[in-house]
Design goal:
291 residues; alpha/beta; 3-stranded antiparallel sheet; 3-stranded mixed sheet
Length: 291
């Protein structure tokens, strides 16, 4: 088996997460911040904590090591969505630069944690560059797709390519306007790789050339129905080849996954996920996988 950081579908071995206790801080802070961050409603602090613990239990039951980010005064509620502040590669971690202004402190908070854990940091997106991890998807170890939209810009993508080096092909994917700049939309809002030759997609938002390129790569595209988009149907985390974790509330998506031979593990995420529009891929900064 080969260990790698450059995979979305290999057997998951290690992830970084942040508990709502550390991200939210208190009920008063939730009440003060959720509207400005664009949440659909205020998360219930206690329920969000229980939902998080249940998800960690799913990971631990699958043999996944979970590293927990500490509280940091420079971050807020959104820091519970740990994927966005960084990108991982076999050469080291690339710290992002957040397109959402309220999240600008998250990359430095993650840097301190990575350094404490002994995980090498390759570099960071600087200056006018913007890059969020939810826009970055490894299609294979040599190919990374990056969404170009309201959260990630061309300069951020250029800097990422320079840091990853010439061995990695960077594919830029134009994002749709969809619901506008205030919405939470990343590349992973329309694409979740699931295993050898399979991916869940939300085709209404996919550029035709990119969708066609996935088919040319031999991927079976499992369509998420439009009725389940807001229930985070497209936001699916692979635990390994043909095993995935989904947030409850998208039953037709789950049925289609199972019909394609994928084992589906469910967890309740009404407060932790749906109210902040971030599912299991958003909650986890995946690190090591085995191929």
């Amino acid at each position: 088996m080969t260990r790698t950081f450059q995979s979305e579908t290999g057997l998951l071995r290690r992830v970084v997460m942040k508990h709502p206790r550390e991200a939210y801080g208190s009920v008063d802070r939730v009440d003060a911040e959720w509207r400005d961050l664009g949440y659909l409603a205020a998360p219930d602090f206690g329920r969000a904590c229980r939902e998080f613990d249940d998800l960690v239990g799913v990971f631990q039951g699958a043999g996944v090591e979970v590293l927990l980010l500490p509280a940091d005064e420079g971050t807020g509620l959104d820091s519970v969505y740990a994927r966005d502040a960084s990108v991982v590669s076999d050469r080291g971690v690339v710290l992002g630069s957040m397109g959402k202004a309220q999240r600008r402190g998250e990359p430095d908070a993650q840097r301190r944690a990575f350094e404490a854990w002994g995980i090498p940091v390759l570099g960071r997106i600087e200056g006018e560059g913007r890059l969020e991890g939810g826009d970055v998807v490894w299609l294979d170890r040599a190919t990374v797709a990056v969404g170009l939209g309201y959260r990630t810009n061309a300069e951020g993508i250029r800097q990422l390519g320079a840091l990853l080096g010439s061995d990695v092909d960077v594919v830029t994917v134009p994002a749709p306007h969809w619901r506008g700049p205030a919405d939470v939309f990343h590349l992973m809002s329309m694409l979740s790789p699931l295993g050898p030759g399979k991916a869940a997609v939300f085709s209404p938002t996919m550029p035709v050339p990119f969708r066609d390129s996935l088919i040319e790569r031999g991927l079976e595209l499992i369509e998420v129905p439009i009725e389940e988009y807001d229930a985070l149907g497209p936001n699916i985390l692979a635990l390994g080849p043909d095993v995935c974790v989904v947030c409850e509330g998208a039953p037709e998506t789950a049925r289609r996954l199972e019909a394609s031979g994928i084992e589906v593990l469910r967890f309740a995420g009404g407060d932790l996920c749906v109210k902040g529009s971030g599912g299991p891929t958003c909650l986890t900064r995946t690190l090591e996988r085995e191929l």
